Amino acid sequence: MVRVENLAKSGIKSIPKEYVRPEEELINMGDVFEQEKKKEGPEVPTVDLKEMESEDEEVRRSCRERLKKAAEEWGVMQLVNHGIPIELINAVKESGEAFFALPVEEKEKYANEQSSGNVQGYGSKLANNASGQLEWQDYLFHLIFPEDKCDLSIWPKTPSRYTEVTSEYARHLRKLASKILGMLSLGLGLEEGRLEEEVGGMEELLLQLKINYYPICPQPEKALGVEAHTDVSSLTFLLHNMVPGLQLFYDGNWVTAKCVPDSIFMHVGDTIEILSNGKYKSILHRGMVNKEKIRISWAVFCEPPKDKIVLKPLPELVSDAEPARFPPRTFTQHIQHKLFRKTEEPVGADQTK
Ligand SMILES: O=C(O)CCC(=O)C(=O)O
Ligand SMILES: [Fe+2]
User: What sequence ranges are listed for the domain Fe2OG dioxygenase (predicted)?
Assistant: First the structure.
C-alpha cells in the first residue's frame, strides 16, 4: 500500500498520475494561503453558542434562528463558544499530531484492511472508480462513541494519552450533537428531541473519527487532499491544525474557509438534508493541499445506524406543495446510491461522494 507520506518524503518533483485530478476538477485551485487571506466574497457563517445558555428565552430564540439560517443557506458553519474546553481540544490535536509524527513503519502496525471490510485503522484511499483517482492524504479512522461499541485495542497506544483524551472529546461532542439536533428540530417546527431520535439516539448514533493527514505536495495545483463530496453523516464536527485547505462550493464558486481559532467547524450532512426534506443543506466541499505545510484535520461523523433506520423526509415536512425530495433509503443504501452514480457518470459530472 502506497502511503502519501512516503511519496511526499521521497523528494519527487511531480506527483504520480493517479493523484493528478482531471482538468474539469481543477477550478479555483490557486494558492490556498492567499485565498484564505481574501477579504471580499461570501464567508462561512459563524454561530456563537454562548447565547444558548442564556436565561432569556428571547436570546436563546435568536441564537436558534442564526443556526437555522446557517443550516438552510450554507449547511456549514463555524461554531464558537461551543462549550468544549479548549485545553481538551488542544490535547486531541496534540495526540493526533504525535501519532502522525511516528515513523510510517510504526503507523503501519495500525493499518486497516479495506479489502476484508476492516475499515478502522491507519489507511490511504483505494481507487473507487475506473479512472483510479487518488487523494493526497493518509488517515486514521475509528469509532469513538458509543463507548461500548468502540474497539479500544486498535486505538493508538502512542501517545499514551490518546485514548483518554479522544474518549473525553467524544463524550463532549455527543452532548453538543444532541444540543444542535435539538435546535435544528425546533427550527423545523418539530419537538426538540425529534431529529435526535430519528438518527438513532444515544444508543445507535455512531461517532466516527477520521484524522486526515495531508502531507506537503509538490504540485498542489493538480492534486486534491479530499475530492469534492457531501458528507453522508447527520452532522460532522471538524477541527484542523490552522492550516487552510477546506473549500465549500457556495453559490457556484469554491469558497476557502477562514481559520478561526478555537472554533469547531460543523457540517450538516446528507442524513439531515434528507430528514428535513432539503430544508437544511448538505454542502459540497473539498480539501486542498499545499507546498509548505502539513495539514491535519479531525472529522467526527455522527452517523445513523447502517441498516436499522430508513431515512426519508419527515412526514410533517411533506405536503402536496412540498413533495418528498428524497426516496426512502437506509444509510447503507444511500451510500451505495452515491457510489453507483459516481461509477456510472463521467468523472467530474457528479462531484458528490
Ligand atoms: O480536511 C478537511 O477540512 C475536510 C475533510 C472532509 O471533508 C472529510 O473528511 O469528509
Ligand atoms: Fe467531508
Answer: 205-304
Q: Mean pLDDT check: name the lowest of 28-32, 194-198, 262-266.
A: 28-32
**Ligand at shortest distance from the CA of 140:** 1
Question: Would residue 279 show up in a list of annotated catalytic residues for this protein?
Answer: no
Q: Which of 222, 231, 279, 334 is catalytic?
A: 231
- Ligand 1, atom 9, lies closest to the CA of 299
β-strand pairing of 46-48 with 76-80: parallel
Decide: 177 and 236 in contact? Cβ < 8 Å. no
Rounded average pLDDT over 148-161: 97
| Helix, strand or coil, per DSSP, at residue 145 | strand
Convert the pLDDT of each residue in 79-103 to its tens digit. 999 999 999 999 999 999 999 999 9
Tell the CATH superfamily of the 4-304 domain.
B-lactam Antibiotic, Isopenicillin N Synthase; Chain (2.60.120.330)
What ranges do the domains of the chain cover?
4-304
Beta bridge partners of 77: 266
- Residue from 35, 141, 213, 226 whose mutation best tests the ligand 1 pocket (most atoms within 8 A of CB): 226
pTM of the model: 0.96
507520506: which residue's cell?
A: 5
Q: Which of helix, strand or coil describes residue 130?
A: coil
Q: Quick one: pLDDT band at residue 343, thresholds 50, 70, 90? A: low
Which residues touch 51 (CB under 8 Å, ≥6 apart)? Answer: 59, 60, 62, 63
Region 138-167: mean pLDDT is 98
Give the up-direction half-sphere exposure of residue 346: CA atoms within 13 A in the CB hemisphere.
5
Other CB atoms within 10 Å distance of the CB of residue 117: 7
H-only helix segments in 38-83? 57-73
**pLDDT (0 to 100) of residue 345:** 53
Q: Do strands 138-145 and 253-256 pair parallel, antiparallel, or not at all (unpaired)?
A: unpaired
The residue whose C-alpha atom lies closest to atom 7 belonging to ligand 1 is 286
Task: Give the burial string for 122-155 (b: 16+ CB within 10 Å, else e).
Answer: bbbbeeeeeeebbbbbbbbbbbbbbeeebeeebb
